[in-house]
Amino acid sequence: MDKESRDKPLVNGTKLMFYDSLTLAITSVLCCAALGLGLYGNDDLHNGFSQLLTEGHQVEQLVSQIRNQTTQIEKTLTKNEESQLTTIRDAFDNYATNQTAVAQLLKWIDNAISNNSDAMHAASDIRLPLERIHLTAKIRLAEKIETWRWPITMTVLSLLLVLCVVLLVGVARHSRCALIAFSVCGLLAVIASYLMASVYLASSVALGDLCVASDKFLEEEASPELPREIVRYYTSCERARANPFTQRLREAKASIVALREVVRKMQKPANELFPGKGLEPIFISLSNQINDADKLFDTLMTLVDCHALHAHYLRGARALCNVGLLGLSLMLASSVLAGILLTILVWVDSHTWIYIRKRKDYHQVNETDTSYLPAPAASQAIAARTLQRSQGSYPPDTPPPSYTSAMLHISPHASAPPHEAQLLIDGCDKRSTEARGAHLSHLRGHTLGRLPSHHHESFSGPNNGKYATLSKQCKTLESSDFY
């Protein structure tokens, strides 16, 4: 197999790894963008849901004010009936000279008690339907759910985002460990993405149905004791639809006006007929309480109007159905896109890390690599300095001894014959190429510049024959003869 055939699989693997790495990088960036879209949608959903809960608190406060107002009216009118009117009625039972006037006072006091009771019952009729409206418990439950939902969603999306960033770093640095770790964690990320997508899909459908017919949903979820016309009045707030509390409020207002008029009529004759009973302070206190009840009814008439409560209802519905539903839709799209992109990333990543080899702690050197050997000039300079230090008999301007000079110092026990040394002394080996090759063949395996020794004897030449240089005069030798 030639070199081109051997290198072809390596080239194909390199190209495939390049394309896979490029695919991983682009898909990771798109996945980060999809997860960022989910973070944005989660923030929108949180803002819309928080606005809904805020408006829910406002509605609860408004309903509580109506209940408190009616309760205050009932307490005031009950005090009128039990304290002032009863005391005045008991005073009229005493003997008086003008019995006709007493009979008229008794008729007026009965009328006053009746009007006071009518006003009190009207306030009670307004309060009773609202007693079933308690949004505080549901609002607190929703707040607890949102308190856990928002940070958990942010944490999950942030972890998926960090996972994509780790993959990007692994692709950029060709990290085998990072890609293998993503292959394992990516499967969990894909499962989490599709689970979130299923939850968001169901939530989006439910919230969409709620936003389409929110008034009907409130009617069905309202308490059975709460009349449907009251719910429709506040959810629609149409001019053609009458206030369900208007009739009772008008009756209560008329009773208060009649009560005030009756008290004003009987105050003077009662004080004249019963001067020693101390009725004057009682009439003054009764008149003040009637005026307070009248003001409370005026405030109650403003509170039960649909405009204030309907405004809170609209703001809450818009926050949930516009901002919240948009955020939930973005989260659904983000989860679906992230699931698809993560699936692609896991699939491509499982084929990419195979082509990345593990890094070795050492550098493999080729046997024929001679880069560790010093350059010829540097070798000659080192040999020259070594010989000069060892012998000290060469002048500074004298060139270093050649290879032939080193051969002169070979002991008689050396393997080279004397005639071969003489030939080297002449400056060039004049033997034939075949003979020279046969002579050099036994030198292969030894280090260049170091003469072999059969008996491990010391050379008598310069520096014991070590690091000798070849003579420049011999120009017929070829480099191939030494390899």
Automatic annotation (TrEMBL):
<dbReference type="InterPro" id="IPR006990">
    <property type="entry name" value="Tweety"/>
</dbReference>
<keyword id="KW-0406">Ion transport</keyword>
<dbReference type="GO" id="GO:0005886">
    <property type="term" value="C:plasma membrane"/>
</dbReference>
<comment type="similarity">
    <text>Belongs to the tweety family.</text>
</comment>
<comment type="function">
    <text>Probable chloride channel.</text>
</comment>
<keyword id="KW-0869">Chloride channel</keyword>
<keyword id="KW-0325">Glycoprotein</keyword>
<dbReference type="GO" id="GO:0005229">
    <property type="term" value="F:intracellularly calcium-gated chloride channel activity"/>
</dbReference>
<keyword id="KW-0472">Membrane</keyword>
<feature type="transmembrane region" description="Helical">
    <location>
        <begin position="21"/>
        <end position="40"/>
    </location>
</feature>
<keyword id="KW-0407">Ion channel</keyword>
<dbReference type="GO" id="GO:0034707">
    <property type="term" value="C:chloride channel complex"/>
</dbReference>
<feature type="transmembrane region" description="Helical">
    <location>
        <begin position="150"/>
        <end position="172"/>
    </location>
</feature>
<feature type="transmembrane region" description="Helical">
    <location>
        <begin position="323"/>
        <end position="348"/>
    </location>
</feature>
<dbReference type="Pfam" id="PF04906">
    <property type="entry name" value="Tweety"/>
</dbReference>
<keyword id="KW-0813">Transport</keyword>
<protein>
    <recommendedName>
        <fullName>Protein tweety homolog</fullName>
    </recommendedName>
</protein>
<keyword id="KW-0812">Transmembrane</keyword>
<feature type="transmembrane region" description="Helical">
    <location>
        <begin position="179"/>
        <end position="202"/>
    </location>
</feature>
<keyword id="KW-1003">Cell membrane</keyword>
<keyword id="KW-0868">Chloride</keyword>
<keyword id="KW-1133">Transmembrane helix</keyword>
<dbReference type="GO" id="GO:0072320">
    <property type="term" value="F:volume-sensitive chloride channel activity"/>
</dbReference>
